[in-house]
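Appendix B: complex inputs.
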Amino acid sequence: MASIWRYILAGLGLAALLVGIVAVVYLTLPHSASGPDLSRSKKTANGLFVASFEPERGVIRQGELQSWLLTLKTAAGAPVEGAAITVSGGMPQHNHGLPTSPQATDYLGEGRYRIDGVKFTMSGWWQLHFGISAAAGSDSVVFNIVL
Amino acid sequence: MSVACLVALAALALLGGCGEPQFSDAEKKTIASLALNTLPSLKPDTTNQYADVPAAAALGSTLFFDAGMSRGGTVSCSTCHKIDRQFQDDLPQAVGVGRTNRRTMPLAGVARNPWFFWDGRRDSLWAQALTPLENPLEQAGNRAAFAHYIKKRFGERYERIFGRLPDLSTAPANASPLGSDAEKAAWNAMPASQQDDINRVYANIGKAIAAFERSIEPEQTRFDRFAIDLATGAKPEGDAALSPEEILGLKLFIGKANCVTCHNGPRFTDGAFHNTGVPPVDGLPPDRGRVDAVAQVQADPFNCLGKFRDGDESACRELRFMVKDGPQIMRAYKTPSLRGAADRPPYMHAGQFSTLDEVVAHYSKAPPSVEGVSEVHPLDLSDRERAALVAFLKTLSD
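Resulting structure:
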């Protein structure tokens, strides 16, 4: 009797040890440091504006037409009004464009622009490029979205 | 019992062994997203106020199966969309009054599409239904004749749903803006108000048929039973247990072979348009897919932005934000659902491939497109991998 329990205990101990080793290896491995920059707020390419991009309803739903908000501030933090915005993008790894053509449809005040008609039809890495022209000049920004 | 044996057991348990299929968490998530139980309930169609009216669906069903809805009285929707054949006809190109240039599409889950036809040249189920009715190769009718026919055969049923039929006593027997020269002339001679009356009856025919089509939904298959068991941690029993070959195929489908990038969600389609390098068929007229459909859906008087839509314009965002140009829509076709595909060869928009083996061989080789750029890249699958993909696709049929 006692000897069976010893074996079971030993087995459990070894299993725990294995779990430990796997966990250590996993935690110390470098974590896909090469993935795209996923920040939702950043300086535009030439530093003219600070742009933030968020889904209007908070969540991204694959396969659904959604509206997003692009918020534009000057480097000094003032809202950017009256900007002309162009939208393009696609999936860099599949070399295809967007399945829809989103547009800036409304200005909501305080530098916020509604970008409607955004749809992500598959999981993976998407990019949205914005061309922005305003009183301060023209600049562009790219947001990466991974589903 | 030795310590070594226990260690081996512990290691096996860690690997999720004990003979059960092994899937990573990411794979499990993808598999769960393909199962039919994740299909959301059908959204209302605000552009068709009769979409969920039972009497409209009943009239629509009558019209769907009625060969009287054609010139000559020989062709109905069900001539090509056969109820016992997944609402398709097993032919490479459909045959109605004449031979068409495309393959009949099966209809399970059709009401969930944002776009209709292989190239998406219609933007609602009810606008779609009006196209074959007047296509000279399909039902070859004309809208004035359909209005008279409805009044004569189904007047009472129609009026109970849609209200009073217009006075058609002065309307020509045959007239349509799309018909023969004589029909066009007759149409153009009609006062605008009468054209409008007939267009209204015609749109309602589409809305009734669409109401019926909303009930055509995909059915659970072996794959779904397997996926549900996997998600709930139950051991798949009986036919829900997939064979090692089917599991290899599933892993390829959601992994190395990338099929799931386009064939995703519980219907195995992203509802979007892609050029996959499927070759054209010799002898058929040029077919450039989506690129030529854009202008057609924009010009359709029954599209979402037209005056026959019910509800408000907020329902028209697909049309408003559609991709109108660019190289990616050249020879792009709508990703078809793969549910039931194994039981209904041939495949592709003009029946280009007669077996699933040929389909998978196409993806493995990924030839360049004759026009535009194919989005698929060579996979160089082994014989075993190709067979496994086919075996997996069959689990979506039984």
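The first helix of chain B runs from residue 3 to 14.
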